[in-house]
Amino acid sequence: MKIHIGNDVKTEEIAGLISRGAKFVAYQYIISVPVFRPVKRISKLFFIKPGENSSRYATGYNFLSFLLGIWGLPFGPPTLVKIFLLNMNGGIDFTEEVMVNLQADTLIKKEISLEKPARFFEAPTKSNLKELEKVFREVKKYGIIGEPVIAGFFINTARDESPYHVIGISSDLTDEKLQVIRRELGRKFYKHIRFEIVSLLSPDYEHVDRLRKEGVHLS
After folding, report:
1. What is the rounded average pLDDT for all residues in the chain?
2. Which residues contact 176 (CB under 8 A, 6 or more apart)?
């Protein structure tokens, strides 16, 4: 993605400016044709300094959306309103994604490839989360694990690897505990759904801090 940023901003200053309220944002605009739903597009990234009024960028893309999107009846006008509100409320915040992917020459090129996700874990789907809570209510009846139990859907995988579920338990892992947990998971989930069971107490799992921060506590 292209980046709009002043030449006076240095790479080593970015983190400090962000701690004071700066951010990288993008704005949406739409292209419409009659009958069909509008196509949404994302602008280049804008670096908004602390205290800077970003409405001039938002207004520009809202005007572009008006020119390209108002004609697409019946879907254009209602989508246009949503785009206006999104942009005027600050646009889409890409700060975390940029900081994860920032390179030494990014500001020189004024372009960045957002290949690495800012988050390692997403929340499991609502249906999977509901089933996981049932599973671990049963597991807890055995008195073999403590609180909390944290579930996350790991998305920071290699290109040839599919995302999968990670379950963190507040207990040391033993073969007996794994057998109980996998048996209960097998009663609620198909065999092809991958689960990795890790201990929140062990340093062996390299992403344990991320799981604690980004995962979902099972009730």
Report:
1. 93
2. 144
Report the distance separating Cα 147 and Cα 124, nearest Å.
19
First to last CA, the chain: 40
Domain ranges (residues) in the chain: 3-109, 121-217
Identify the band that residue 115 occupies on the pLDDT scale cut at 50, 70 and 90.
Answer: confident
Percent of the chain with pLDDT over 90: 83
Model confidence at 76, in pLDDT bands (50, 70, 90)? Answer: confident
Residue 49 burial (10 A CB sphere; 0-12, 13-18, 19+)? middle
pLDDT at 158: 82
**Which pLDDT value is given to residue 180?**
96
Instruction: Please state whether the peptide bond connecting residue 50 to the residue before it is cis, i.e. omega within 30 degrees of 0.
Output: no
CATH number for the region 121-217 comes to 3.30.300
Q: What CA–CA distances, in Å, run from 101 to 81, 95, 118?
A: 32, 10, 8
Q: Which of 190, 187, 151, 149 is nearest to 170 (CA)?
A: 149
Query: 119: pLDDT confidence band, cut at 50, 70 and 90?
Result: confident
Q: Is residue 131 within 8 Å of residue 190, measured between CB atoms?
A: no
